[in-house]
C-alpha cells in the first residue's frame, strides 16, 4: 500500500480505454480516474482492491473482483456495466478482519437477467458488510446474486432485485428485501431476513 499510482492522469486528456485480457491482479493502490473506459474482455479475470474509479467499467463474459483485503472500501458502483448475461462482479473480503464495502449508487444492468453478483466473505469468523442502502438490480433485474464463503455477510438495508439468490455460504447472513427465488446450497445457512421477500 502507500500512495496510489495514477494511470492516465497526466494533467490533460484522459486515456480512452484500458483493455483487460486474461488474468490481471493489481496488488498495490491505483487511481483510474484518468481512464474513460475499462473493458474487461471475454474470459478475463481482473482483481483489485482499488481499481474501481474509472469513468466506465464494462464487464464482458468475464470476472471483475473488488477485494476489501486491505481495508474498507467506498465504491462509486454506478460506473459498472454488465455487457454480457454471464458477466460476474465479485465483491469480497478475503482479509482476516471484518470489512465494509459501501456502494455510492445502485448496481443496475442495462437489461433484465444480465449480470451475476457474488458477495464473498472468504474467512470463517469474519464479516463482509455491504452498506450504502443501495439496490442490486434497479430498473432491471440481475440474473443472480450469490452469497458465498465461510465468513458472515451483512446486507441489511440493501435491496435485491434479481431473478435468483443463491446461498452458498456457511456463515451467518443478514439479507435485505428481495423479490427473488432463494436457493440454499448449504445445510447450515443461518439466515436473518431484514426486509420483505416477494
TrEMBL record:
It comes from the Bacteria. This is OmpA. It comes from Rickettsia sibirica. The lineage of its organism: Bacteria, Pseudomonadati, Pseudomonadota, Alphaproteobacteria, Rickettsiales. The gene is ompA.
